[in-house]
Write a sequence for this structure.
């Protein structure tokens, strides 16, 4: 057993001495791991004192930034506004805790929408359209029906209700921002042999709520989304902006 | 036109930026543009001060604001002001960039020359354009040379406190307390709560 060095509380004082370097980003990654570990084990008042000192350092340095102001080139603004408008959707964060709640909500929503499925093939151009209502009904009725759902930060929710037995899924997108003019969203079934197109959605198809049948899941492990030129691409032309694991 | 001291102005800035961030979280491009316009010179200035390379600084500034666009909803008012949130994010990215460049090349060859001169000169070399700048400059000037040197090396050069300790051949505990004393001095001088 190790004998503590110094009087009681010296560990806490030592830990607190790292609050300022931590807030100034003056710790190495290894230091941060170590300090985070010590904070997990520290008494609540020490943690509060640590966080309070970090807040003070950050507020102080935010004011100090007045000393170093430099006007950026004007084109940076235009580039940035271009970038953000080409960035309409963000990484889907699968949210396990919400899955159960969503499965009920979405099943109800998807079932309600299923009645009007005539309009739902809009923009689904890369695969032959299935007699959609029957596929959706079969998926919902399947004994192995599963739901995966992911929230798109600030940009809606995508949910897939699927059945391996029926080899099909129903995608529901709620309040997802439509693709920018001149682009479409393309969905890909990602399996061992790479992504296979599962269709595209244009702006008309996306807003404000979309349901699409995805047939032929095969051995795919995920449904990925990319932004593509109108009509879609044979292969994803960039990284997926969102991906739902089909497990 | 009356120029308010930084601390007097801060609540106004905070309320306005806070409102803009909420709109940005709802994908409001105009609010984003307004947020950018109100903060761009602080962000670009700090990033430039750390990176000292116009190309890297522009890229990093873009990354900072893309992160604002994507994560505005994660801003938590109870954890600090929007400006502190933004500047923390900007500083983190700038430091990460310095350290990754340092890992791929040798920082000494690129940045070493700049550190031959007394480090305090960098901080003293301030753009003083208004009372606000002047007050901040005065507060920086009120630090001791050794405190200012620590802030320069750690905050503006992106060194870790142990690298600062090596650079100055001064023990780790002393470096940490200099940093802490420097922040306390600035805070008192600026009247930051």
């Amino acid at each position: 057993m190790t004998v503590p060095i110094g009087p009681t509380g010296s560990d806490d004082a030592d830990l607190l001495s790292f609050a300022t370097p931590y807030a100034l980003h003056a710790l190495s990654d290894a230091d941060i791991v170590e300090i985070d570990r010590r904070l997990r084990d520290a008494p609540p008042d020490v943690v509060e004192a640590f966080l309070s000192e970090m807040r003070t350092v950050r507020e102080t340095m935010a004011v100090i930034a007045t000393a170093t102001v430099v006007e950026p080139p004007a084109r940076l603004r235009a580039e940035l506004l271009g970038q953000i408008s080409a960035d309409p959707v963000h990484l889907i964060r699968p949210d396990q805790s919400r899955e159960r709640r969503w499965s009920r909500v979405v099943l109800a929503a998807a079932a309600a929408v299923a009645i009007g499925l005539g309009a739902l093939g809009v923009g689904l151009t890369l695969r032959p359209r299935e007699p959609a209502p029957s596929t959706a009904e079969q998926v919902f009725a399947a004994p192995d029906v599963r739901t995966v759902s992911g929230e798109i930060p600030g940009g809606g929710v995508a949910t897939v209700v699927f059945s391996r037995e029926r080899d099909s899924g129903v995608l529901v997108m709620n309040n997802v921002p439509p693709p920018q003019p001149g682009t479409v969203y393309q969905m890909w079934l990602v399996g061992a042999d790479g992504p296979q197109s599962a269709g595209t959605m244009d702006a008309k198809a996306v807003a404000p709520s979309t349901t699409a049948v995805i047939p032929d899941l095969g051995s795919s492990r995920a449904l990925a989304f990319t932004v593509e030129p109108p009509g879609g691409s044979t292969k994803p032309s960039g990284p997926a902006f969102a991906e739902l694991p089909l497990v | 036109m009356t120029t308010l001291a930084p601390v007097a102005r801060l609540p106004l800035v905070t309320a306005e930026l806070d409102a803009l961030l909420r709109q940005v979280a709802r994908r409001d491009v105009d609010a984003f543009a307004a947020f950018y316009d109100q903060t761009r010179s602080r962000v670009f200035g700090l990033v430039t001060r750390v990176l000292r390379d116009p190309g890297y600084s522009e890229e990093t500034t873009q990354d900072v604001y893309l992160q604002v666009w994507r994560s505005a909803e994660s801003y938590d008012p109870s954890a600090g002001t929007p400006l502190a949130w933004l500047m923390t994010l900007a500083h983190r990215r700038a430091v990460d960039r310095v350290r990754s460049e340092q890992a791929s090349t040798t920082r000494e060859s690129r940045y070493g020359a700049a550190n031959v001169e007394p480090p305090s000169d960098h901080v003293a070399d301030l753009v003083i354009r208004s009372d606000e700048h002047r007050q901040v400059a005065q507060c920086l000037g009120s630090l001791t040379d050794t405190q200012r040197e620590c802030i320069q090396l750690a905050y503006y050069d992106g060194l870790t406190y142990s690298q600062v300790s090596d650079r100055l051949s001064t023990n780790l505990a002393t470096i940490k307390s200099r940093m802490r004393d420097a922040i306390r001095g600035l805070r008192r001088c600026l009247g930051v709560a």
Summary: Chain B touches chain A through 72 residues (CB under 8 Å).
